[in-house]
Amino acid sequence: MPSPPEPDGDDEPLLGDGEPPAFEVVDGGARSPFVVSCDHASARIPQKLGKLGLPDSELERHIAWDIGAAGLARKLATMLDAWLVLQNYSRLVIDCNRRLERPDSIAVKSEDTEIPGNLALAPGDAARRAREIFEPYHARIRHELDARAAAGRASILLFVHTFTPVFRGVSRSLHAGVLYHRDTRLALPLLTALRRESGLEIGDNQPYAATALTDYGIIVHAEERGLPPVELEVRQDLVSDEEGQSAWAERLARLLGSAARELGF
Length: 265
Description:
Blueprint: E1 23-26, E2 34-38, H1 56-59, H2 69-80, E3 83-87, E4 109-110, E5 113-114, H3 123-150, E6 156-163, E7 166-167, E8 170-171, E9 176-179, H4 187-195, E10 202-204, H5 217-222, E11 229-235, H6 242-262
Parallel strand pairs: 2-3, 2-6, 6-11, 9-10
Antiparallel strand pairs: 1-3, 4-5, 7-8, 9-11
Helix pairs in contact: 2-6, 4-6
């Protein structure tokens, strides 16, 4: 991973006293092979950044976070007895599913919304966001995977996301999508199993496709280690409340457990 820009001499931290750390960890059972991450769990903005120049209505939208993803990830991790990590700050501050050198690592525009607080950002300010949010989050995932490998424990990586039901005025009929890059050991059996479920329309690398340019975790934490991954996208209106989150978590836990057993985990 390339080094972020050097600080600009302002040593004041981005995250103030009393603000949450970059991530939250929920420990699962010692025998579960599943490691779950939720990159876009929160719409929180560090106090030092105000609201990035945006009204509350924009920060409640998909551009700021994956609505319903945190609740779904928590319920799914509980059902799988999995280790879970959730990122605690909005993707508008820094996107933890993008490489730092990418122009959309800190977006100046998301969909059709300009992000005033990200315009003309000084290199030191970008470095501070990377240092206090991006790096600790991914370092904690690396630490967990290293520890599991050292202990001889198998790992299957799940990346939980949600997508907006309407994108730039176009309705999306998909209920969920199964995303993958080169390693399809888990993704394709799960895709097949989901498509056998009654009444569901499931996307194959849709509504987004996982690529080395658009995704970080599935490439760096999974494929570069040779670990089987799958990235899940569920439509937000289906998991916006606890009932929907529970229903989808139960479905996914059942199918993921079966797929993992078929792979010998």
